[in-house]
Amino acid sequence: MGGVRVLVGTRKGAFVLTSDERRGDWQVDGPHFAGWEVYHVAGSPVDPDRIWAAPSGGWFGQVIQRSQDGGRTWDPVGNDFSYASPAGEHQWYDGTLRPWEFTRVWHLEPSGTDADLLYAGIQDAAMFRSTDGGDSWAELRGLREHGSGPQWQPGAGGMCLHTILLDPRDNDRMTVAISAAGVFRTDDGGTSWRPINQGLLSDGIPSPAAQVGHCVHNLAMHPDRPDTLYMQKHWDVMRSDDGGEHWHEISGNLPSDFGFPIAVHAHEPETVYVVPITSDAHHFPPDGKLRVYRSRTGGDQWEPLTDGLPQENCYVDILRDAMAVDGLDQCGVYVGTTGGQVYGSADSGHSWAPIVRDLPPVLSVEVQTL
Amino acid sequence: MTAGAAPDVGRIRVVLPAHLRQLARCGREVTVEAEPTQRGVIDALEDRYPGLRGTLREPGTDRRRAFVRFYACEDDLSHEPPDAELPEAVRQGKEPFLIIGAMAGG
């Protein structure tokens, strides 16, 4: 069977959207975990029928659920994300120090080579690993214990580890992003970490030498070119060609370089997608027009993609984990909005159509190519 | 029951809130064989419905989650010690033990 399965996390449950390779007719299944906030749903590249979801809520905490049948049925797995050592303190919004405290899982990243291995990024920022398919979790404590923790501070959404990139060449190399600390990399499987934020300029910390404190919103990497990393920062779209050692700005002609998600075309490592948002004060698209912007030059030159997207009176947001691409020959691109729409393009972004229009606010979108 | 001994296991009726019924895939009320204490009832619930682990008590500390409340016989038992015996009517199955998500938000 060919086709795609789009995994959607929302404020009130998870949804599974499936289609054949034409991506014109969609089956919508859900809500799963109705009433729960589902920050992320992710499937194993090794065994696509194995999917994990991270429902959470203010009353009943965090649970993790695993499906073995492509999202039709779910069973609970481990949900103990206790820090591996005394939690330490980080900066609070007012500059005082506050103890690390687990709030929720933001992101799940299954391994590309081992169906039992996956990682979780959590709030307050830390990274966990499971080697048994999610049944149990252990913190990679070297990240939280890096030593710069007292300078980390929460972004508006909390102090979260929201992006995990696994290097397809080397299982020991992983890159993560934390709001608002920045980008960190390990080259020894998660034992030790170092910040890689040279070249980032952020309001309040204008020094390009500042090691931490940057509000990185999302990272993207093409598996064929893992040394090239793309970044949507709070403001600025950035690029690195040396695995994150140095960054330079590629915002170019974007109408706003504020935004949340960033994605790379499945077959073209120099084709990049962002969704400009007006500003940190106005979390909606400029001029009320939802435009995905595409660069086919690895940044700097951007073109608006508008066909099929609302071009008037549109005031939704696209959150950091709510854009994804599929791996079909004609690359599909998907975005979910805080208005509950999921838009899909089956032609690399040239034209778009809504898959669903009235879901709860969309928190995350992932795609499995079947 | 003799002084100092664990209370006898009994059939305890438990009413669950909607979010937890989703996870447990059960109806509004379930019956568990449990020691008639908060700890006994929650232990029994978690044994029968593993998906509820960590939802009523915080992993690691086993403290009741701040917005989880326990009621029975029109009394708020949330601040009772976890090993205190539940009311007689709950022990006899005449009244359910109510687990409730605290009112919050607008």
List the helices and strands and how they pair.
The complex is a heterodimer of chains A (370) and B (106).
Chain A: E1 4-10, E2 13-19, E3 27-32, E4 37-43, E5 51-57, E6 61-62, E7 64-67, E8 75-77, E9 89-91, E10 97-99, E11 104-110, E12 118-123, E13 126-130, E14 138-139, H1 141-144, E15 160-166, E16 174-179, E17 182-186, E18 194-195, E19 216-221, E20 229-233, E21 237-240, E22 248-249, E23 258-264, E24 272-277, E25 292-295, E26 303-305, E27 323-325, E28 333-336, E29 342-345, E30 353-356, E31 362-369
Antiparallel strand pairs in A: 1-2, 1-31, 2-3, 4-5, 5-6, 5-7, 7-8, 9-10, 11-12, 12-13, 13-14, 15-16, 16-17, 17-18, 19-20, 20-21, 21-22, 23-24, 24-25, 25-26, 27-28, 28-29, 29-30
Chain B: E1 10-15, H1 18-24, E2 29-34, H2 38-48, E3 68-72, E4 75-76, H3 88-91, E5 97-101
Parallel strand pairs in B: 1-5
Antiparallel strand pairs in B: 1-2, 3-4, 3-5
